[in-house]
């Protein structure tokens, strides 16, 4: 069907090409200048081509899209109107840039001739996100009656190239791309202005441009007798686990690595790195993904006496490996055969076949088992809930095929010490916004992650109280919006206990600590949930928490787990002392 006007033509082409390129979710925030995009998204959703989500504010919408993209492994588009609406996407854009998450930012704008004139809701949106986006285009308003077919081809090519860039197929890491689309009136699809061309795309509903497929070559030889550990950070994926198992090396995998499975994964690696006798004998580190959780790991990766090897996909750009200490001496590519497991010079053990651990691996496994048992005894001896017992209960409640979204600050670190060694092939997905590790937008990202993985057997989230309050609007969903079955566990210690573990939490800063860093809020989370129509349950002991986790929710529900904050620094000191005790 031929659009009635030029603005509708631009919007229809953009949405159509996004769908052709693999976009399945579009988040729309209300606005006037973006009306043509909103109508086009609505029509595409009505035709069953995509799922439409609407949100009241752009900050929440951006983080919803971030969660959708992370769990679905597809680019997600966000539509905003002009002015400050665009600026509210910035926190989610920064997180997506750092984490390599593909977002397509469709920001509506007034025609360029109105910039600098004081026209309402007109500001400089050109490159407003700076270097945080992988690509940017400022698209002028379409002109009816003037080479309409050429305009249409240009829009399709631009959208297709932007999707390739967002997905990491243009020599850069995956990440957000920004299309600033200028729209002139009329903005609704029923007002004609002389446009007369049907916006046809490639035949057979194909995209305008396809990214080239990468085929791996022979893998590098990284096997030797050197005492090596594999560090798997956020989004490292199965290759880190396969390598560790094939070579017989200890696996130091963060919860969101996608590699915290198999017999080589260590639960208490963070504590064991504090053992100078054990960690001091490490000769080489292979690092995959984006490790960010602990200072001991950062210090390990920064040791100048070690060989530090970066594990990267074939053809990976420089920004996809982690090198905080500037110590990486070489990169090793994962050799990939499409549709098969990564290839290594040392093949992983066959299914059902066990290999006796080397003395090096056996030492780490024995120390890990001993330390884990002592940690469990320490936590069990304490009265009431601790943040660690809450994290452990959530980790145990995550079934095969389940999804867990984890907030920044203490919850992700507590979980790191409590995650059991999950079996290979369980398809548990543990996600977090670890690109910049911010607390903002986490509720929305958790909701988006649950919506983006509809086959999940159970969806859980683990957040701190400040993180939860920071994105309380993420619970505000319209009556027609998709609503996942999601249990949000909030660890409530009335403030920011992470800071008590840092330098500013030392006794000499006690006078200013509460006001400047702990920031107790005294908020009634039950009443906050009531205001948003969200079921809420408050628990104070492990049995009550486990009972709450046993119930699968219908929709979104909040379980508030109350813990102490005044003893957090002492608790962490007691945990660290277990290594030498």
List keywords for this structure.
six-stranded parallel beta sheet, 581 residues, Rossmann fold, globular
Q: What would you say this structure looks like, in words?
A:
This protein has 581 residues and is of the alpha/beta class. The protein has three domains: 6-190, Rossmann fold; 228-348 and 357-363, TPP-binding domain (Rossmann fold, 3-Layer(aba) Sandwich), CATH 3.40.50; 382-577, Thiamin diphosphate (ThDP)-binding fold, Pyr/PP domains (Rossmann fold). The protein has 19 helices and 17 strands. It has helices at 6-20, 35-46, 58-72, 84-87, 90-99, 148-166, 238-247, 269-272, 276-279, 295-301, 359-380, 387-397, 410-418, 442-452, 465-470, 510-518, 525-532, 542-550, 568-577, and strands at residues 25-28, 51-54, 76-80, 103-109, 135-139, 177-182, 228-232, 251-253, 284-288, 307-312, 328-333, 403-406, 429-432, 459-464, 486-492, 536-539, 556-562. The strands form three sheets. Strands 2-1-3-4-6-5 form a six-stranded parallel sheet, sandwiched between helices. It has a six-stranded parallel sheet with strand order 13-12-14-15-17-16, with helices on both faces. Strands 8-7-9-10-11 form a five-stranded parallel sheet, sandwiched between helices. Helix 1 packs across helix 2 (35-46). The longest helix is centred in the middle third of the chain and has 22 residues, at 359-380. It is globular. The termini are far apart.
What is this entry, summarized?
Helix content is 34%, strand content 15%. It has helices at residues 6-20, 35-46, 58-72, 84-87, 90-99, 148-166, 238-247, 269-272, 276-279, 295-301, 359-380, 387-397, 410-418, 442-452, 465-470, 510-518, 525-532, 542-550, 568-577, and strands at residues 25-28, 51-54, 76-80, 103-109, 135-139, 177-182, 228-232, 251-253, 284-288, 307-312, 328-333, 403-406, 429-432, 459-464, 486-492, 536-539, 556-562.
């Amino acid at each position: 069907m031929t659009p009635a006007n030029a603005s509708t033509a631009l919007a229809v082409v953009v949405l159509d090409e996004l769908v052709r390129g693999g976009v399945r979710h579009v988040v729309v925030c209300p606005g006037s200048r973006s009306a043509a995009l909103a109508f086009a998204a609505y029509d595409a959703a009505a035709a069953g081509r995509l799922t439409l989500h609407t949100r009241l504010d752009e900050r929440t919408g951006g983080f919803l899209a971030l969660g959708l993209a992370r769990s679905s492994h597809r680019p997600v588009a966000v539509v905003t109107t002009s002015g400050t609406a665009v600026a509210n996407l910035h926190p989610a854009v920064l997180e997506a840039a750092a984490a390599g998450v593909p977002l397509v930012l469709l920001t509506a704008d007034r025609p360029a001739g109105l910039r600098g004139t004081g026209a309402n809701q007109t500001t400089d949106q050109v490159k407003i996100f700076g270097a945080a986006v992988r690509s940017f285009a400022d698209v002028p308003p379409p002109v009816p009656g003037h080479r309409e077919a050429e305009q249409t081809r240009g829009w399709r090519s631009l959208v297709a190239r932007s999707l390739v860039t967002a997905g990491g197929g243009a020599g850069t890491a995956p990440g957000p791309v920004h299309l600033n689309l200028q729209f002139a009136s009329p903005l609704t699809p029923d007002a004609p202005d002389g446009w007369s061309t049907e916006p046809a795309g490639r035949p057979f509903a194909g995209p305008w441009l396809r990214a080239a497929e990468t085929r791996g070559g022979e893998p590098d030889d990284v096997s030797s007798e050197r005492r090596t550990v594999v560090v798997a950070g956020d989004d490292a994926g199965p290759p880190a686990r396969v390598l560790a198992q094939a070579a017989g090396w200890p696996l130091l995998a963060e919860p969101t690595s996608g590699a915290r499975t198999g017999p080589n994964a260590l639960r208490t690696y963070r504590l064991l790195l504090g053992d100078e006798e054990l960690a001091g004998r490490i000769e080489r580190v292979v690092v995959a993904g984006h490790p960010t959780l602990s200072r001991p790991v950062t210090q390990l990766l920064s040791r100048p006496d070690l060989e530090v090897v970066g594990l990267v996909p074939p053809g990976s750009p420089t920004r996809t490996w982690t090198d905080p200490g500037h110590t990486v001496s070489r990169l090793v590519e994962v050799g990939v055969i499409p549709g098969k497991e990564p290839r290594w010079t040392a093949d992983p053990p066959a299914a059902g076949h066990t290999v006796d651990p080397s003395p090096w691996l056996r030492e780490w496994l024995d120390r890990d088992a001993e330390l884990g048992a002592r940690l469990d005894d320490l936590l069990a001896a304490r009265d009431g809930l601790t943040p660690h017992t809450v994290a452990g209960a959530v980790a145990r409640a995550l079934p095969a095929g389940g999804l867990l979204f984890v907030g920044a600050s203490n919850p992700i670190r507590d979980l790191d010490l409590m995650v059991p060694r999950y079996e290979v092939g369980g398809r548990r997905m543990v996600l977090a916004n670890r690109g910049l590790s911010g607390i903002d937008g986490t509720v929305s990202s958790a909701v988006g992650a649950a919506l983006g993985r509809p086959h999940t057997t159970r969806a859980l989230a683990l957040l701190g109280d400040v993180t939860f309050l920071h994105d309380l609007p993420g619970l505000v969903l319209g009556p027609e919006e998709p609503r996942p079955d999601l249990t949000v566990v909030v660890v409530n210690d009335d403030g920011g206990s992470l800071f008590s573990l840092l330098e500013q939490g030392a006794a000499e800063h006690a006078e200013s600590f509460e006001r400047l860093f702990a920031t107790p809020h005294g908020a009634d989370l039950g009443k906050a949930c009531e205001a948003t129509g969200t079921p809420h349950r408050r628990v104070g002991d492990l049995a009550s928490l486990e009972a709450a986790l046993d119930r699968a929710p219908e929709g979104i529900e909040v379980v508030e787990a109350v813990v102490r904050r005044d003893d957090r620094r002492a608790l962490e000191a007691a945990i660290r002392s277990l290594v030498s005790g």
